[in-house]
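re the bet — no i am not wrong, look at it urself. input seq straight from the record:
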Amino acid sequence: MTFKLSVELTPKWHLTILRELAKVIDGLCFDTIWVSDHYHNKNVFIALAFIASATQHTKIGPGVLSPYIHHPAYIAQSILTLTDLAKGRVVCGIGAGDFLSLMQLGFERYNPVSVVRDALLSIKGLLRGEFVNLSGTAFKLINAKLNFGDQNNIPVYVGAQGDNMLKMATRFADGILVNFSDEDMLRYAYNLIYHTSMNVGRNPSNIDIVAHTPVSISDDVLLAKKAALPYAAYILAGSNDTVLERLGVSAEKASKVRLALMRMDLQEAKSLVEDEVDNFTIYGTPKQVTEKLLTIQSLGYEHIVIGSPIGPNPQKAIALLNTEVLSILKNEED
């Protein structure tokens, strides 16, 4: 399998800026442009439509959509509509969703593994043009069928951290976005996916096992770290107790970070994660970032998503990734 490097864009900028970034990425050697989905940023599918119009080669898709917020029928409908603009280049990512955003919108994150599994199977059925019936706790489908399209080749990924979500995704998903930056956690997740796939009779090489990690790259280490801090805060706040315990983060620290973010006090949240930022992000100079990504590659990951913020200057960071990081990763594989 050829090593792949992808990029996640956060639709917080003007859509014309997103389009220009996507155009640059499309001209380089990146595999996929993922666009994150949070209610407080711009709409993910409008952003993806802009990106589709500016790209010709790179795959594109949402990463990730929560079935608590987005009904699976509307996820499938939106994904199939997007294929009109980017035929053969569309992917889809779903997951339980960010703990804080769900809470702010009044959604209770109950039975996440079952909810995501039901959404995954429903979306895949709808994309194949099938009738789907399901009576779940978070949503229902009653003889639902899309009246256009019949796509059996759109890969659906699951964003996962916890053991049960990783196991479920290994059974049913086309790919898994493993949302860790810590080496030990990434190793643990990869081994769990590998052994689960063997136990359920799936060839692990048929699953796109992706390390999805926030990255901040710059010639200035302090600027890179500063850009990474808010992302570390949000990921820490959204991680479950088991993950936090494995990373050595106290329940008290997690509670303080969540409360700060709920108050929209980003400065306090960033100050609280100063000592935790290495657990939740990768940041530094091109050489430092390359070394960390090479370590991830050595764990077995053949696909890495460079998650937001990418860097304090995204345009420059993408150029650095292309010229000083991707070439080394690909050469290392050869």
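see?? The two ends are 11 Å apart (CA to CA). told u. also Residues 4-217+282-333 form a domain with the TIM Barrel fold (CATH 3.20.20.30). so pay up
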